[in-house]
Amino acid sequence: MAEKRSPGLGAIFANIIGAVDGYVVKIEFPKKATNPKKYFNRKGCYSVLLLICVDANGYIIYYDLQYAGATHDSTAYIGSDLSTWAKCGSFDRGGKRHFILGDAAFMTCSGVLAPYTRGSSEITMDEFNFNYFHSSLRIKVEQALGMMVAKFGILKTYLRHSLDINKKIVAACINLHNFLLSKKSTDYLEEQIIPFEGWSSKRIRYKCLSHADSGEIAFVSGGTDNDG
Fold first, then answer.
1. For residue 12, which of 84, 113, 162 has the smallest C-alpha distance?
2. Nearest to 134 by CA among 97, 94, 107, 95
3. How far apart are CA 207 and CA 200, in angstroms?
4. CB of 57 within 8 A of CB of 196?
5. In 3D, which of 65, 61, 68, 67 has the Cα closest to residue 29?
6. What are the residue ranges spanned by the domains of the chain?
């Protein structure tokens, strides 16, 4: 069944380079932050927002850590390099426009394809099918986050260092995640995510989620704000 479904996914979602999502990394009260309140999120804890983009194989091809935990995912995306690249056409290949998949939080963001959000009684069959296949591909980013958090238990706890050190810890986990995928580490891989050769710390090869195209995208380290 999976083999029959793959061509359909490619036909419906051609020219997709990745899936984007936000994840709150819990931290202890940021004593040296200029405005600690902006780190207190709606889940009731202090955090920094991790914005990531993942390719079809589970590689994290982009991440950004410059925003406090109370920041909305869409706000972080709009202020990121991903948004800038989308607006200037950096994703495009072979004269074709390329996109990133995101959940409803990104529905107003340039370069992102988001699901339809109308109620179940109002949504059409075409929109329902769109959302179904959209979710089937977008789950890659959730799988990658799940793998990383499960492997590196420190991400389940409250990071206890300065904001700068906390962000370096998260960045180290991201690089280790990509490294373990590139080495086909048997105790790290999940069946749904199959790595491929060619990853390096400076540039990461990506394959479109639809497998319709491939190319390169610069690996961008997390940004930092002015708080320590």
1. 113
2. 107
3. 15
4. yes
5. 68
6. 2-218
Rounded CA-CA distance 163/169 in Å is: 10
Tally the C-alpha atoms within 13 A of residue 168's C-alpha that lie toward its C-beta: 7
Q: Give kind and range of the element (H or E) at residue 73.
A: helix 73-78
Dihedral through CA 219, CA 51, CA 70, CA 115, nearest 10?
A: 150
Helix, strand, or coil (residue 65): strand
Distance of CA 150 to CAs 8, 120, 142, 210, Å? 31, 33, 12, 27
75 vs 215, more confident? 75
Compute the distance between CA of residue 101 and CA of residue 191 in angstroms, rounded to an integer: 22
The amino acid sitting at 65 is L
- Per residue in 147-184, pLDDT (tens digit) is 899 889 999 999 999 999 999 999 999 999 999 888 87
Dihedral sign computed on CA atoms, order 215, 92, 225, 59: negative
- Name the β-bridge partners of 52: 21, 63
Q: From CA 72, how far away is CA 83, in angstroms rounded?
A: 15
- What does the chain come to in residues? 228
In the structure, how many helices (H) and strands (E) does the chain have? 5, 7
Q: Residue 225 has what pLDDT?
A: 54
Contact indicator for 131, 122 with CB cutoff of 8 Å: no
Amino acid (one-letter) located at 215: G
Ranges of beta strands (E only) in the chain are 16-26, 47-54, 60-68, 99-101, 112-113, 203-207, 214-218
Instruction: Tell me the one-letter amino acid at 46.
Output: Y
